[in-house]
């Protein structure tokens, strides 16, 4: 994940991209890995890696929203932290073979829509 963050934030076009666009890009990459793993590409090792990648991203976001200096509204910060907690629990469920990654894909997709400014219908 650190390599990916460096790659995303260290790109030459970074000055042209907002933090929101960078967050979207990282979520899109994590979601693509989850989808590929859901489709059986790479077997269990790919699934475990995709879950880990997604969880590390959400852990990073959780640390950011937990910071007192975060400028997001408190209710949104709490919701994002809850998503991290759910992601951690559900990732374990998937690894134990008692669930699938579909819920994580749906959450990431919904957050990406929000980052794009789309309003839920």
Any overview of this molecule?
With 121 residues, the chain is mostly helical. The protein has one domain (2-116). It is 74% helix and 0% strand. The chain contains 5 helices and no strands. The chain has helices at residues 2-9, 19-38, 43-66, 74-95, 102-116. The chain is globular, with a radius of gyration of 15 Å. The model has no long low-confidence stretch (mean pLDDT 89).
Quick rundown:
This protein is an all-alpha fold and 121 residues long.
Topology:
Blueprint: H1 2-9, H2 19-38, H3 43-66, H4 74-95, H5 102-116
**Biggest sheet record:** none
Number of strands: 0
Question: Helix amount, in percent?
Answer: over 70%
Mean pLDDT: 89
Total domains, how many?
1
Uncertain segments: none
Mass-distribution shape: globular
The end-to-end distance, rounded to whole angstroms, is 33 Å
**H and E string:** HHHHH
Continuous helix count: 5
Hey, roughly how much beta strand do the residues contain?
Answer: under 5%
Overall radius of gyration: 15 Å
Structural class of the helix and strand makeup?
Answer: mainly alpha
For the structure shown, list the relevant keywords.
single chain, mainly alpha, 121 residues
């Amino acid at each position: 994940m650190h390599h990916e963050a460096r790659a995303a934030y260290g790109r030459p076009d970074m000055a042209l991209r907002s933090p929101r666009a960078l967050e979207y890009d990282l979520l899109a990459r994590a979601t693509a890995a989850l989808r590929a793993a859901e489709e059986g590409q790479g077997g269990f090792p790919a699934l475990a890696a995709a879950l880990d990648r997604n969880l590390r991203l959400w852990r990073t976001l959780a640390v950011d929203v937990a910071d007192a200096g975060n400028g997001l509204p408190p209710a949104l910060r709490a919701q994002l932290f809850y998503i991290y907690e759910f992601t951690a629990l559900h990732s374990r469920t998937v690894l134990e073979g008692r669930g699938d990654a579909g819920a994580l894909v749906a959450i990431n997709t919904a957050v990406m829509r929000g980052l794009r400014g789309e309003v839920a219908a």
